[in-house]
Amino acid sequence: MDPKSKASRRKIDLAPELVHELKKWKLACPKGETDLIFPTEGGTPENAANLLYRRFFPALRRAGLPRMRFHNLRHTYASLLIAQGEHPKYIQSQLGHSSINVTMDIYGHLMDTVNQKAASLLGKTVLGSINTKVQLENMQHQIC
Asked: Are 92 and 99 a contacting pair, CB within 8 Å?
């Protein structure tokens, strides 16, 4: 199956710990012609319905999570990136959106709380330190 767009074909950043676990998992998986990470017991591609009902939904139950669409994992990933303050352009590249507008249209409402944290941090930076005030005054004198 071909990707939807050029931006869909991309590299995704993964934590080293996750890469390690995926490598261990792949070594334990049945081998097949396509060298899949999540194959059937015969090494062939997993049927979408089987993946959901035999793997995904039971994993959600074991984790104590409510039943959800598989696609919701993508939204969770984006939401977690936003919550930890990642730059919107980075989020766009990880999700494979063709433009920052797509990312902002879908996830912009989640950035309000991050924006407030940024505003508070800026306030502390600008007003919270004598050195910062002196640096700002010096910059203003240089500009004027």
From this structure: yes
User: CA dihedral in degrees (118, 121, 127, 133; nearest 10)?
Assistant: -90
Q: Which two tokens stand for residue 10?
A: 């991309």
Residues 22-77: tens digit of each pLDDT: 999 989 888 888 888 888 888 899 999 999 999 999 999 999 999 999 999 999 99
Reported as half-sphere exposure (CB side, CA atoms, 13 A), residue 23 has a value of 7
Q: Is the pLDDT of residue 5 over 80?
A: no
Query: DSSP assignment of the chain, as one string?
Result: ---SSGGGS------HHHHHHHHHHHHHSPP-TT--SSB-TTSSBPPHHHIIIIIIHHHHHHHTPPP--TTHHHHHHHHHHHHTT--HHHHHHHHT-SSHHHHHHHHGGGHHHHHHHHHHHHHHHHHS-HHHHHHHHHHHHHH-
85: left (phi over 0), alpha (psi -120 to 50) or beta: left
**Segments making up each domain of the chain, as ranges:** 12-68
